[in-house]
Amino acid sequence: MRGPRGYDRCRRPLCRAAAGVGAAVAATLTALAVAGPPHVGADPGPAARRPNASAGPLSPVDTLRPAVTVREHWGADPRLLDQKPRYADAVHAVVIHHTGNANDYACADSPHLVREIYATHAVGKAWGDIGYNFLVDKCGTIFEGRLGGVDRAVVGAHTVGLNKGTAGIAAIGTYTEGVPVPKRLRESVARLIAWKLGLTGATPAARAQLVSTNSNSRFPKDSSVSVPAVLGHIGAYETNCPGEALVRLLPALRREAARLQDEAGVQVRKERAETSGRKARGGRAVAAPAEVRRTGGPG
């Protein structure tokens, strides 16, 4: 089923965008080439890709937090930005997309593809920024999308009517019927789902209550709707996105994300129990000589 033209064409390769959009993006990219794009170096490493990460696994969310290539490291040019971040109260659901790019790209070229999508959304479609909150390439690299903070409930422009309270996660490529979905992409998307929903205590296998903001979605404006906490774009809007291969994968992504959340909870409870045990053992050393207490375990 084909969706209406205009707002969302993630089912099509970007190179098939409308002539006006293509011209605007081409002009923008040409201008950036003349001025010189921001430097995009080698992989910045886990510390740079985990902004504000805690020093230790204090909670299940801390252990779930994936490495994310932030905007400055994939080269998000601030000259294209014409949109201030807006925030919802929380992320209650995630919406899965595909970008429509050809699947034969080299993963080393992923930052370039993200920059092209950014230019298309921000300039060609006049959204002021990239529409997706996150993008994931076939090698499993996660890219920060829309500006505002990877751990915050940033309102994106990735669907119609259900942007508020959701996070848009786009698989870079085209995943129609019969197209294999790479394992590393699946793993990264599942972990990203587990983490983003875990930030607000949402369960991937549950349902979420959202309010539609646009009657051009599948739901009338201002209506309260119940949707899966992990849904495909097609579940929110009449479109062929994210492609049948990813639609069929949604149940498995829900299960894997839920398993990761459960596993993280077990890990944290175990670590807390071990920490409590160490403190208890330290406490029993009170009667030891002073010099032993000074070098003993934590109290």
Structure explained in plain terms:
This protein is an alpha/beta fold. The protein is built from eight helices and seven strands; from the N terminus they run ααααβαβββαβββαα. A five-stranded mixed sheet has the order 3-2-4-1-7, covered by helices on one side. A two-stranded antiparallel ribbon has the order 5-6. α1 (19-35) crosses α5 (110-124). The longest helix is centred in the last third of the chain and has 40 residues, at 244-283. It is globular and about 65 Å long. The termini are far apart.
List the helices and strands and how they pair.
Blueprint: H1 19-35, H2 46-49, H3 60-64, H4 71-74, E1 93-98, H5 110-124, E2 134-136, E3 142-144, E4 166-171, H6 183-198, E5 207-211, E6 224-228, E7 230-232, H7 244-283, H8 290-295
Parallel strand pairs: 1-4, 1-7, 2-4
Antiparallel strand pairs: 2-3, 5-6
Helix pairs in contact: 1-5, 6-7
Low-confidence stretches: 1-21, 23-57, 285-299
* Rg result: 22 Å
Roughly how much helix do the residues carry, as a percent range? 25-40%
Distance between the termini: 64 Å
Order of helices and strands: HHHHEHEEEHEEEHH
How would you state the average pLDDT, rounded? 82
Principal-axes geometry comes out as globular
Strand % is 5-15%
Tell me the number of strands.
7
Give the helix/strand class.
Answer: alpha/beta
* Order of strands, widest sheet: 3-2-4-1-7
Major pleated sheet? 5 strands, mixed
Number of H- or I-type helical stretches:
8
